[in-house]
Design goal:
6-stranded parallel β-sheet; about 750 residues; single chain; disordered N terminus; alpha/beta; disordered C terminus
Length: about 750
């Protein structure tokens, strides 16, 4: 039954069972905390670090410690010299990169807590010992700082943070060479600036059988002992037991009637049309094309989607990415509201229970329950351990509560993995499995229980020079089967694929950010691009841009299964080949008895690739699905090789490269076969004269530059010619072919 409208507070649900005990029922809500505040700053890419930061806040509050949690990009870094105690929670993305919200600059309005007073009292100036002080004032160093860049400034005094006690908790994946690189680097830097570490850095590892919690749980126990030793809590303040839920972060004030249209129009008109679209103010782009580009019998649905960005102030170059904010399906929203007894037509405002807590970004005030569930709550995500912990506290049903406590315990993580992580069970499906607990969730706790829907990033597949006022993406619709009855579907890809611009106006919230692919500006620098499957998308943008600028040294290695099923932009590539603007090398893995992939083509054309890299200073790029890189290496056939030197590059989760581990000129590959790389840059001007001979392909004799090309070889590019290769008779190791880069 829907909750009755007209109340200005959250309505309890009477289940006829034991009522969950809450902190306010025991008189603990509003009890004054000690003066010492624990500051938790987090840098998160996928939400895991934010979830850990919120866990720190909960554990601090249970110990009667005041705690403030803040994103690093919203924190005034100049205030760090005044903080007594800070806990940093930071993830490592790609190959040793900080998350986006550690690299972005804080907005001026977010920095207003640090007013600039020209002169020596400016906190940013105080940090620096350079003879020339940092610029200060509005919109300069003291009002808008990139945390990661600022903290590593060379002119910061060694005693800058002598007053600071700190701890660093890192999240990473030990299958990558630069495991927890950001946490390690930050820990060392804070020590260099005079800070006192309470503990060695915690290095959470996704590869552990129990996940990052295997390292986090014992580390947090030791951390709180240190913190309480420094800032003891008065004896008359008892700790809040773990089975008692803490007060919610926000209180929902409900309205009987919907707000006036004038108020809604005021909210809509508050967007600044002069600023480029961003996460806080996305552009509602009309979708003009949604076309399936794979054959009707192909196993995968791949879409070419085009948006009209006229009047948006959006500008991008090849290599940039577009972020799209998806929504939950109407069926899931209706099911969620029925399960929790929510009225989707109810309107509310959020009131923080503690001072200084900002309202959630992206959530308008006032807001409807329908908007909250459709646009904000990620009910289609796989729940984390903290979800079960809070749901257990709120549950009035003994049997369900017992199971929830097991799944949230340290010893129950294998059971949680088997129940949720492996089959990819969603929050909505978990709530259906625990109906009595779901029906007892107060609306106040929705924002604490369920994370926000995060935007999805796609490589931009077009250039403004070729398609003015248009933005295109190439998107594979994510759908796969686990042991659960219902197929698993990607939230964003399924949402976009369901839209038909021919049936009416469709607008999609999006914005653009710089990517990790940076193409050379020099017209004489060749570019080698390896883009199997949908990984070819950013290279289409690059080729369009380079051709429009008169750059012809474009070499594209493209692989797919079938020429007539998933050969994306075939006609476009062939037209560019005719014009001499592109050299295209294809690998259709299923069109012959022995499967052939792009790595085979790279092996076969090793001498040509080496000539481009070594003599022409070519840049080498890889994008796409890394599953199937050879487990040991993919050697390029390089002339004059002794075979004694090897370099390994490992594709990372965010598409950035690691390596080389030894000599810089070689390109064997090693992959963990786990990640879909949206943008993978491998760019290096090679000067090494040696090389690595392929052990499984007999290298042809080196061919001098300018030798006439045989008819069956690659199209001629001025000054270079590939060797004569017997491509159809190459012998590959073992009975099985090299695994595919794109299946």
């Amino acid at each position: 039954m829907p909750r009755q409208r007209g109340s200005n507070t959250s309505l309890p649900v009477d289940t006829g069972r034991r009522k969950a005990v809450r902190a306010r029922d025991l008189g603990w809500e509003g009890v004054e905390m000690p003066d010492h505040e624990v500051l938790v700053l987090f840098g998160s890419q996928t939400g895991t670090a934010q979830d850990v930061a919120e866990r720190l806040r909960r554990e601090a509050r249970r110990r009667r410690l005041s705690c403030r949690v803040q994103e690093l990009d919203s924190y005034a870094v100049a205030n760090l010299i005044r903080e007594p105690l800070v806990i940093f929670v930071c993830a490592t993305t790609g190959q040793g990169d900080p998350p986006d919200n550690m690299k972005k600059q804080a907005l001026k309005e977010q920095m207003s807590i640090l007013p600039c007073e020209r002169g020596p009292t400016c906190h940013v100036q105080t940090w620096c010992s350079a003879p020339t002080p940092l610029p200060h004032g509005p919109n300069t160093a003291c009002s808008c700082q990139n945390f990661w860049r600022f903290i590593f400034r060379k002119n910061l005094p060694a005693t800058s943070l002598s007053q600071l006690d700190f701890a660093v908790l890192g999240l990473g994946d030990s299958s990558y060479t630069k495991f927890n690189f950001v946490a390690k680097k930050l820990h060392r830097r804070l020590l260099q600036l005079g800070g006192s570490a309470l503990l060695p850095a915690c290095l959470g590892d996704d590869q552990h059988e129990l996940g990052p919690d295997a390292a986090i749980d014992p580390w947090l126990g030791a951390l709180w002992e240190k913190v309480l030793g420094l800032y003891p809590v008065p004896l008359d303040l008892a700790a809040i037991p773990p089975e008692v839920p803490l007060p919610s972060t926000f209180a929902l004030q409900l309205f009987q009637d919907a707000p006036s249209m004038a108020l809604q129009e005021l909210t809509a008109s508050s967007l600044d049309s002069h600023q480029p679209p961003s996460e806080s103010q996305p552009f509602l782009a009309p979708m003009v094309v949604n076309q399936r580009v794979t054959g009707p019998t192909h196993f995968q649905d791949v879409r070419l989607i085009e948006f009209d960005i006229t009047g948006s102030s959006i500008s991008f170059v090849a290599g940039d990415v577009v972020l799209i904010q998806p929504s939950n399906s109407a069926a899931h929203v209706q099911q969620f509201c029925q399960l929790l007894g929510l009225d989707p037509d109810q309107w509310f405002t959020l009131q923080p229970r503690e001072p200084g807590v900002p309202s959630p970004s992206g959530l308008p005030q006032p807001c409807s329950v329908w908007y909250l569930v459709t646009q904000y709550l990620d009910i289609a995500s796989v729940p984390r351990r903290s979800f079960f912990e809070l749901l257990a506290c709120l549950s009035p049903h003994e049997l369900e509560r017992e199971k929830l406590l097991e799944l949230s315990s340290a010893t129950g993580q294998e059971a949680l993995c088997e129940y949720c992580s492996r089959p990819r069970r969603t929050i909505l499906e978990v709530l259906c499995d625990f109906p009595h607990s779901a029906g007892a969730i107060p609306p106040d706790y929705l924002l604490d229980l369920i994370p926000r829907i995060r935007p999805r990033a796609f490589s931009i597949a077009s250039s403004l020079l070729a398609h003015p006022n248009r933005l295109q993406i190439l998107m594979a619709v994510v759908q796969y089967q686990t042991r659960l009855r219902e197929p698993r579907r990607g939230l964003c890809s399924s949402w976009l694929a369901s839209m038909d611009p021919g049936q009416g106006s469709i607008r999609v919230p999006l914005w653009v950010r710089p990517g990790s692919l940076a193409f050379p500006k020099s017209p004489d620098t060749p570019v080698i691009m390896v883009g199997p499957g949908t990984g070819v998308a950013p290279f289409r943008a690059a080729i369009q841009e380079r051709v429009a600028q008169g750059q012809t040294g474009n070499f594209l290695f493209f692989g797919c299964r079938w020429r007539d099923q998933d050969f994306y932009w075939e006609a476009e590539w062939q037209e560019l080949e005719k014009k001499g603007c592109l050299v295209l090398v294809t690998a259709f893995s299923r069109e012959q008895e022995r499967k052939v992939y792009v790595q085979h083509r790279l092996q076969e054309l090793g001498p040509l690739v080496w000539e481009l890299l070594d003599h022409r200073g070519a840049h080498f790029y890889l994008a796409g699905n890394t599953v199937g890189f050879p487990a040991l290496m993919l050697p390029l056939t390089l002339p004059g090789s002794s075979g004694q030197c090897a370099s390994r590059w490992r594709p990372g989760p965010e598409g950035t490269p690691v390596g080389p581990d030894s000599c810089p000129g070689l390109l064997p590959w090693e992959s963990r076969g786990k990640h879909l790389v949206e943008e993978h840059l491998i760019r290096q001007s090679f000067s090494h004269s040696g090389g690595l001979s392929a052990p499984t392909l007999q290298p042809a004799p080196p061919v001098a530059l300018g030798t006439p090309c045989p008819s069956h070889a690659l199209p001629h590019w001025p000054g270079l010619c590939p060797p004569i290769l017997a491509q159809d008779t190459a012998v590959y190791p073992g009975d099985s072919p090299v695994p595919p880069m794109a299946a």
